[in-house]
Amino acid sequence: MFWGALEWILLGVGGVSAIAYGVRRHRPARKAPWWLLAGSLAALAVGDVCYSYRHVPILEDLADLCYLLMFALTALCLLQFTRGGALLGDRARLIDLLALSCSTLLIVWVFVIGTDGRFETVSPADVIGDLLLLGVASRLVAADRRNVAAVLLLAGALGMLAGDVGYPLARGPLTESAFVVLYVCWGLAAVHPSMIRLTEPAPDRPSPWKFRWSVLLAVSAAGPPTVLLIEALRGEVEDGVVIAVTGAVTLVLTITRLADAIRQNSQALTREQGLRAATAALVAAADRPAVDAAVRAAVAQLLPPQAVRRVALADELAPTELPATPALPGSRSWWLDAAGPDDRTLVCPLRLEPLDVARPSGGALIITGRREDLVTGHDALEVLAGQAALALDRITLVEAVGRRDSDLYLRAVIRNTADLMAVIDTDQRIRYASPALRDLLDQEELPPLATLDELVDPDDRARVRTALRSHGDGTVHCALQRADRTQVLVELTYRDLREDRLVQGLVVTMRDITGNHDPAELHPYGEHSAEMPAWVNRRSAQQRFRY
Q1: Could you count the other beta carbons within 10 Å of the beta carbon of residue 187?
Q2: What does the buried/exposed string (b/e) look like for 352-377 if buried means 16 or more CB atoms within 10 Å of the residue's CB?
Q3: pLDDT tens by residue, 362-398
Q4: pTM of the model
Q5: For residue 225, what are the CA distances in angstroms to 181, 359, 386, 437?
Q6: Coil, strand or helix at 470
Q7: Strand pairing partners for 305?
Q8: At what angle do helices 178-191 and 5-26 cross, to 10 degrees?
């Protein structure tokens, strides 16, 4: 043997150590397939060491057991690589083709290659297993030809196939070195940074059901029993081991295919039920707390409880919650980093373009949790965010319509009254002013979006603004300024109804007290150049204590 036991031990330890280093350094989303790959290399190394001492019968049997374990671990590893990965979102067609290939290879080997005596030393089960591994690795490379880790996995599979075919036919250093390619390539695949993308989570892309693929899977599953039946009818079963192995592999692929279909159907049903319940709750929601409770209940149903760290409906986004690059118009979500290495933050904006006028600030649904689960429910969470945005827009518009109807009702009731009254928003914009107030100011209509500050005398604006910004009811005396620069002294009484769902503002009533003061105060900006300074001082005192 060119490669002794020590060399196989060093290759095995080196390959396993490289995979462990790559996993710890790059931290892939799913570590299980890489640990399975490390376990398969360890089993292969132990088998090669035992095979080096195959003159001991028990060690030769142990080597065969280790090789079988290596194939099992490698098969599980590749199944993990093809489950919900970014490179291979839908593995249904791959499993169908692998099952068909497995049955076809069995038939070709038993009835074509197996009849040639030159290949008696080649293990058909090993060759069929190598070809299946080669097919999976080729599919990963076809999905992304620039992924170096996938190319290295393919090179390792080619080395295994070359060794399993070439070494029994022509034993020597060259054919035995083909297995070295397996150790080196699979170890380097885990070290390269592109290994992260092999297990990066991606949303499932289920393929539509087609009858011909179901027929193909049924034919594949029927292949091994048919070959066994034909050999039994001939009188002797000569390929029982390879038939059993191939049948087991085909059965596992068929079960995996059915399990994927059941899982996808279950996930779709769960999402549908969760979104249906959330839609019903959001339609019945009358305020923001009800919307928040409905969204939290829906997230708890759509995602596993242990996968969610934080759920929040934000009115405004902090700078750290904005996308790193400017989001495209109409972008439905973006990703942010989270505190945990396996966690991510999904931000779904609550902004619908046709209804931006209702809630210009927008807001967002922010969910922090395990990225793999967030990616799986990504589409459902975006739909939930859209439903929540519709509910919030509906609530905002209903409140706006209610306030408008309330203002129209108030205007119709007090249209001919002599009371001076106005309804003011929280930003002091005048939403409604009674006709008597407009007559007092000698204006037919107030300017659009006019504020109370624009009507109050500049000397009184700060005091009135401070009073109206405080909570509770109160009274303040001030002067209103007419268009001709004259003043009207009023007693302004306000009621704080900002928490009232229908009003959401301040109701201000005024009483004209101009008749209680000196008429000269109505013209504070008049020209009095001929008067004595004593008048000016007296006038200043009157302005200060006029109320």
Answers
A1: 25
A2: beeeeebbeebbbbbbbbbbbbbbbb
A3: 688 888 888 878 887 888 888 898 888 888 888 888 8
A4: 0.61
A5: 36, 66, 52, 96
A6: coil
A7: none
A8: 20
